[in-house]
Amino acid sequence: MWEGLGYYTRARNLHHTALTCKGVLPKNPEELGGLKGIGKSTAHAICSFAYQQALPILDANVKRVLCRYFALSVKDDKVLWEKAWKLLHVKHPYEHNQAMMDIGAMICTPKNPNCSVCPLEFTCKGKNAPENYPKAVQKAKVPTKKRFALVVLQEGKLGLIQRTQRLLHGLWGFVQLDEKPSDAKSLGKVTHTYSHFKLELEALRCESLHVNVDGWFTCKEIEQLALSTVDKKILALPTMMRTVAPTS
Ligand code: SF4
């Protein structure tokens, strides 16, 4: 059901936590923070939104608002937690946290913050140059990995593996190699960008190579499998139509 949505680890953590808690979440932030996929800010969000506890939150939007409001050039979590506590409205934590998230999402946006309509404008220390808070950090360029996907066929069925590694765990796809086999025929290239790298994947037909797969499937059967986006891109290559028998 989660196929193609990304954030697969989040989905697994959510499922694991739902089973661990047997449907009832703990009510204190320390216990909540010990559950898979729940960090400090999420634990505080649950406690304030579900249980009306006076705890601040610190998601990406709130961090930006706090940096600007207190004119902080550096995004330091320890300092930001202190500021979040200082600003928290202890009698109305639910409304306070919701307002901070809304201001971050709709008014104090990364580009073009709209200070003239911001309820914090009167006391905001960074309103004259919000773009300086926090100072932009040069992001490292995501590396590009070149890999090869093997398109193997047996009686009109495609051989696929079910991934066991952390990335794309549980999803089906073509066998991938780092090196190009010698007598491979190219079927085309696809690209896909993940959060930490860009993948350039060349689909190859290589009849002489023995490849271990987890199952053989017709195109119709593949429609029922959870497939990663990059593998769907390979299936959509025009050359694949000619490679796989039209009846399959
Ligand atoms: S006044 Fe401007 S910089 Fe300050 S919090 Fe509001 S939108 Fe952000």
What does this structure look like?
- The chain is an alpha+beta fold and 248 residues long.
- The chain folds into 2 domains: 39-132, Orthogonal Bundle (Endonuclease Iii, domain 2), CATH 1.10.1670.10; 144-243, Nucleoside Triphosphate Pyrophosphohydrolase (Alpha-Beta Complex), CATH 3.90.79.10.
- Helices cover 34% and strands 17% of the residues.
- It is built from 9 helices and 8 strands.
- The chain has helices at residues 8-21, 29-33, 40-51, 60-69, 77-87, 93-107, 219-223, 229-235, 238-243; strands spanning 144-151, 153-154, 157-162, 172-173, 175-177, 185-193, 198-205, 215-217.
- The protein has a 4-stranded mixed β-sheet. Strands 2, 3, 4 and 8 form a 4-stranded antiparallel β-sheet that branches.
- Strand 2 and strand 3 (157-162) form a beta hairpin.
- The mean pLDDT is 92.
- It binds iron/sulfur cluster.
- Iron/sulfur cluster binds next to helix 4.
